[in-house]
Design brief:
heterodimer; A: mainly alpha; 8 helices; B: mainly alpha
Chain lengths: 244, 58
C-alpha cells in the first residue's frame, strides 16, 4: 500500500481497524514488562530512595507531552501546505492526548518534587515552560471547539500550533540556558546517558510502552474523528435535502 | 517491595497516571460507540453518502 493511499480516510480507518488490536496487545505487553522492571527490578536511588520510581512514569509522559506537540506541528504543516483533511484530523486528535500526558508529567513532577526538593512547585524555567505547554494544549482544544467549520478551525489551530512549537526547544534546553531546580538532561544528552543501566533499561521500556499507548490512542481517536466528520456530512446532507 | 517513607507520593503518582490514562481510554471507547450509533441511526433514516467510494471528511 502506497503512503498516498493512506491519506484516504476510509482506507486509513480500514488499516487502523486491522492494526489497532496488535497495537493494544503490544502496549499491554510493554507496560507489563516495564512496570515489572520499574517496580520490582530497578534499584532504589542512593539519595532519593524509592521515590525514584516516579521517574518511570514522569519522564516518559514528559517526552510524550512534547512529542504530541511535535506531531501536531508536522500535521499543521500538512494542513497549511497541502490542506489535507487527514492532517487536520491528526492535529486535532493529538491535542487532548498530548495534554493528558503533559498533565501526568506535571502532577507526577510535583509529587516527586515534594520529597526530593521540599516543594511541590517552583517557577523555574523547566517547570514553567512545561506548564505553558499544557496551557497551550488547552488553548488549541478550546479553539477546535470554538470554530464550527472543521477546515477553518484547522487553519487557525495550525497557525497556533506552529507558533507554540517555539516552546519545544525552550523546554528541552531550559535546564541548560537558565539556573533551574530541575536537574539537567540525563538521558538524551551529548556524551550519553548518565543513568546506570539498571535504571535506564526499565526507563526505556516504559518509554516504549508510553509511546505505544500514545500511538494506539491517537489512531483510535483519529478513527473516531473521521466517523464524526462523516456524521457531520450526513447531517448537512439531510438538512440540505429538507430545505425547500 | 519497600517504598520507604515517601510511599504515599509514589502510590499517588502511579494512581493519578492510571486515572488519567483510564479516562482517556474511556473517552475514546465511548466516543467510538457514540459515533457508530449516530451513523447507524442516520443510515437507517435513509441518509447516505452520495458516493460510498469517495470519502469527504470535511
Amino acid at each position: 500500500m502506497r503512503l498516498t493511499e493512506l491519506a484516504n480516510p476510509s482506507r486509513f480507518n480500514a488499516l487502523a481497524e486491522r492494526v489497532l488490536p496488535w497495537l493494544v496487545v503490544a502496549t499491554v505487553f510493554a507496560f507489563a514488562l516495564g512496570l515489572y522492571q520499574a517496580l520490582f527490578v530497578a534499584p532504589d536511588d542512593y539519595q532519593q530512595g524509592a521515590t525514584v520510581k516516579i521517574m518511570f512514569i514522569h519522564v516518559p509522559s514528559a517526552w510524550l507531552g512534547m512529542l504530541g506537540w511535535a506531531l501536531m506541528s508536522v500535521a499543521a504543516l500538512g494542513t497549511l501546505v497541502w490542506r489535507h483533511p487527514l492532517a487536520d484530523v491528526a492535529m486535532k486528535t493529538a491535542a487532548p492526548i498530548g495534554a493528558a500526558f503533559t498533565l501526568i508529567c506535571l502532577v507526577t513532577g510535583a509529587l516527586w518534587g515534594r520529597p526530593t526538593w521540599g516543594t511541590y512547585w517552583v517557577w523555574d524555567a523547566r517547570l514553567t515552560s512545561v506548564l505553558i505547554l499544557f496551557l497551550m494544549y488547552l488553548g488549541v482544544i478550546a479553539l477546535w471547539r470554538t470554530v464550527e467549520d472543521p477546515s477553518r478551525a484547522a487553519r487557525a489551530a495550525a497557525v497556533l500550533t506552529l507558533v507554540g512549537a517555539i516552546n519545544l526547544p525552550i523546554i528541552k534546553f531550559s535546564v541548560d540556558w537558565w539556573n533551574t531546580l530541575h536537574q539537567p538532561a540525563s538521558v538524551l544528552r551529548l556524551g550519553g546517558s548518565t543513568i546506570y543501566p539498571t535504571m535506564l533499561i526499565p526507563l526505556l521500556i516504559m518509554a516504549i510502552a508510553f509511546t505505544l499507548l500514545f500511538v494506539t490512542l491517537h489512531l483510535s481517536a483519529m478513527r473516531n474523528e473521521i466517523l464524526r466528520r462523516r456524521v457531520r456530512t450526513l447531517r448537512l446532507m439531510r438538512a440540505a435535502a429538507a430545505t425547500p | 517491595m519497600d517504598l520507604g517513607p515517601h510511599a504515599g507520593f509514589i502510590i499517588a503518582s502511579y494512581a493519578i497516571a492510571l486515572v488519567i490514562v483510564a479516562g482517556l481510554i474511556a473517552w475514546i471507547v465511548f466516543d467510538h460507540r457514540a459515533q457508530l450509533r449516530i451513523l447507524e441511526e442516520l443510515e437507517r433514516a435513509g441518509v447516505t453518502r452520495r458516493s460510498a467510494a469517495r470519502e469527504d471528511v470535511r
